[in-house]
Amino acid sequence: MPDIATILQEPDFKKVVEILCQDTIEGREQEAYLKEYKGDRTRRETSVGNRKDKEIDLYSDTEFEEDDEGNQIPKKIGTDTVPVAKINTNIPKKIVRTAVAFLFGGDMNISFTEDNDGTEYFRAVVEKKLKMKAIFKEFARTVMIETKSALLFYPKAVIASDGKSAIELRVRVLSQKNGEFYPHFDDFGDMDAFTRRYKAINPEDSKEHDYVWIQTADQNITSIDMDGTWVTTTEPNLFGKISIVYAEQDLPEWEDIVSAMDAIELRISRLFDTNDYF
Fold first, then answer.
1. Helices marked H in the chain — which ranges?
2. What are the residue ranges spanned by the domains of the chain?
């Protein structure tokens, strides 16, 4: 795979987007994983949500007909469709909740070889301003559910308590709900670029457009799709490195037990059907 410097030399920005917006795992189904976590059960053929409704025959109480042996039997007057039970459990949520608690259930301790004003400031930023313990939990939860997530650190201009302008460090957890995101790695496995693709309102025309944001170690590239033409602006990366923490896993956290989960939910649903007398 070409390095990011070679990719960015491509004159057609649309091709740059196509190259960089490729997932590291082929066939990743983030939306399906998230739906299953929230209770949808249609991801597999054996999922309880794919149960077919039951067709039952309807017979008349007053009309009769003869069977093959000449006996009088109630006359069939039609069929009816009865919805079957599709009971789902909270197994995926329980597995994710337990795994996150094991990872970040205790207190977060930050230690240094020696303490000074800088270390105290760092603790204050990480623990109080950024609230990193809660951020780490959300980050881990997203990875376990959607199989990938990223922490985006960025500078934000604010007005300090003394009324002066200041720059504060902020962090955001990236997930499916706030757009697509793709890391790019060089031949040695080091991340040399990170790309976000999302929709937002352009303040110039108050219309929604496709945005692409690319960060490398030395620059931030923002491009807007204006009716098929990419309008690009480039700014220096003040961090001097890619300000992203990225993590992924092959499959959702509960994937090892999906066959057992399907079997349990199917049997519970059949039990409900039996109790409902059909």
1. 4-8, 13-20, 30-37, 91-104, 117-123, 132-146, 258-275
2. 4-51+87-249+256-275, 54-85
CA-to-CA separations, 199 to 28, 48, 70, 175, 182, in angstroms, rounded: 21, 35, 71, 14, 15
- Buried b / exposed e along 59-70 (16+ C-beta atoms within 10 A): eeeeeeeeeeee
- For residue 181, which amino acid is it? F
CA distances from 81 to 52, 134, 169, 186, 278 (A): 10, 48, 59, 57, 11
Question: pLDDT below 50 — which residues of the chain?
Answer: 278
Query: 149-159 burial, b for 16+ CB within 10 Å, e for fewer?
Result: bbbbeeeeeee
Residue 151's pLDDT is what? Answer: 98
pTM value is 0.88
Task: Give 3-state DSSP helix, strand, coil % of the chain, rounded to 5.
Answer: 30, 35, 35
